[in-house]
Specification:
Belongs to the ustYa family. It comes from Talaromyces stipitatus (strain ATCC 10500 / CBS 375.48 / QM 6759 / NRRL 1006). This is DUF3328 domain protein. It contains 11 helices and 8 strands. The radius of gyration is 37 Å and the shape is extended. The strands form 4 sheets. It has a two-stranded antiparallel ribbon. By secondary structure, it is mainly alpha-helical. Helix 6 packs antiparallel against helix 8. It has a domain of 183 residues.
């Protein structure tokens, strides 16, 4: 008679084990839920990455892009003068007639104040990065420069005077008119190249004006980043110069070369006339 093999587990223990196996093999209650959550998470991550790329590029553009050598070397003459502010002009910001309206004493005074501190005295310890040997020198040893923005403002005033020549030049001869036109052309080109060198990146909005001659127009009332003009102007007035203090005979003399290249407008271009 053979020996009866004893079960390894009691009946109730064996039943419980088989139930555990069945449970482990059973599919989840909602098999689609895991897939949906996985795909949703992937989509969210893709959206985050897509939105962060432009932001990262913007941050790098304004924080890590190298500044021109001229302005990064120390001491830079304009460092204490430059401060940026956030400004939002009013809707009628471009409707100011003081500078471009009818000629008046108030307008002339405003223009005189705006453009006359154009000369910048640069101290000897600042000028070594600006090639001071090629500009005019003051009797006190400072070098004299003109900021591009003041040349542009001078040009704007010159263009305004040309547009209102009957008032400013009532007895202009044909030769003077020709010279004035050439000077104005020079000013327009100077302003064009200046605006391309330092473009205004303000994002002005469009609007419908319903004017038959200019239906699609641009509005100025948008938040923008600007140089604090009052601070810059105050600095320029501290560094302004007296023409009588210019040391004659120093700096480059390009009159002969200039006359060869610009024979027609040499007389008018040789000096600024406000």
């Amino acid at each position: 008679m053979g020996i009866e093999a004893e079960p390894l587990l009691e009946d109730h223990e064996q039943s419980a084990g088989l139930e555990d196996v069945r449970l482990s093999r059973r599919s989840p209650r909602w098999p689609w839920l895991t897939s949906v959550l996985t795909h949703t998470l992937a989509v969210v991550l893709v959206i985050i990455v897509i939105n962060l790329i432009p932001l990262t590029r913007t941050v790098l553009l304004f924080t890590e892009s190298p500044q021109p050598k001229l302005y990064s070397l120390s001491p830079a003459p304009l460092t204490p003068a430059i401060e940026y502010i956030i400004d939002t002009p009013p809707w009628n910001y471009w409707s100011n007639h003081l500078y471009f309206g009818e000629p008046s004493d108030d307008s002339e005074r405003a223009w005189n104040r705006l453009i006359h501190p154009h000369g910048l005295q640069v101290f000897p310890d600042e000028v070594k990065h600006l090639d001071g040997s090629r500009t005019v020198v003051m009797k006190n040893g400072n070098s004299l420069y003109m900021l591009g923005v003041y040349h542009n403002l001078h040009c704007l005033r010159r263009i305004r005077q040309t547009l209102q020549a009957d008032h400013y030049y009532p007895n202009m001869t044909a030769e003077q008119r020709k010279n004035d036109l050439e000077h104005t052309t020079h000013c327009l080109e100077a302003m064009r190249t200046s605006m391309m060198c330092h473009p205004d990146l303000t994002t002005n909005r469009f609007y419908w004006s319903h004017r038959p001659w200019h239906d699609l127009s641009v509005r100025p009332d948008v938040t923008r980043e600007c140089v604090n003009w009052d601070r810059l102007e105050a600095f320029m007035r501290k560094r302004r110069y007296d023409p009588g203090d210019i040391l004659k005979g120093h700096g480059e003399d390009l009159s002969d070369d200039y006359k060869d290249d610009y024979k027609d407008d040499y007389k008018d271009e040789h000096a600024y006339h406000d």
